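Box 3.1 A note on notation
Throughout this textbook, protein chains are presented in two layers. The first layer is the amino acid sequence; the second is a token string describing backbone geometry. Keep the layers aligned when reading.
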Amino acid sequence: MNRIDPLARADAALGRVVALQAEIDALSARRAEAMVEFGEAFAEAMPADRFPLQERSRRAELAAALRVPERTAEGLLGEARVLVEQLPATLAALAEGRFSYRHAKVMADELCDLDAEDRAAIERVALGSAATQTAARFTRTVRRLRERRSSETMTVRCTEAFGARDVTVQPARDGMAYLTAYLHAVDAEAIQERLTETAHDAQREGDPRTVGQLRADTFTDALLDRDTSLGFGPTAREVLRATAEQLLQAQEETLGRFRGITPTVIVTVPALTLLGGDEPGQVEGVGPIDPVTARRLTAEAPRRARTSRWAARAIRCPRGCESGCGSVTGPAGSRAGASAPDIATSTTPATGPPAASPPTTSSRTSRAGTTP
């Protein structure tokens, strides 16, 4: 009896997984079309002028049929409308199983409020990447295309979005919950880095907790004012089995005071934006920011150095010193300097809401520290 090669079996099984996933993705396109048809038929059967609660009734009917919350049903119906009515090429590609519904959802979320010409142009370019990128990476791709295409409206959109900032709580299992803050991208990145640096400092000195646990404990103790002057709240003391007094000396000698942690945010700004242009800047690890905020961050950075037209990258000194020993490199490790600058990379502290600022006339790379 011949034994089938395990690798061949695995390869065949993987092929079936891919084929089935393509079928699932194609079915999600058909589901979107059916949802739109349901919405139109329901509206015809129950006109809004005769049934004031038509929209709510339609949402409730769909939610009950799919066994999902009404808010989820509303989101699915909205995405279906955008795909069917505004993004026909995306819907057609989804129906062929070329990418997942998550990719189609990214297109719907990012392009729904653009005019028809801009939407069609971005859709045409973005679909070339959808089949080869994860949904997360595809999101960044579509956002970059969107901001390049409609950069003149980004300042207005960012101001409106900043007005929606909020903090929400979502219950989780086993007595836990998710605390979510919707913040300016620069502030969020700075907070995350500050918590991470604090966690790494603690680990270097033997703290047994993971980086994630240390981030959460530092965040909780700081906001609830739990002995933050000592750097250790009740959560940390419980883990380390020590009193605040016993940890005071260790805190001063090892972890340092909380206010001494300096967040760093890397912002890349095109030179023309510094001169008043509309092209957005980029926050490393986050994505585009409006040109007004990009100019302000660059203008307020206390230390500056030019970069070149290459895809330059600012490399911070691993010792965290302030002597300017960080380097900026161009292609193949060559030193940036002689050619005219094309981008600016700023490392800045956390910021507040976008505010108008005069154009800056030079590209800069700078690093700033902040002390509460």
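The longest strand covers residues 166-171. Residues 63 and 72 are 8 Å apart (CA to CA).
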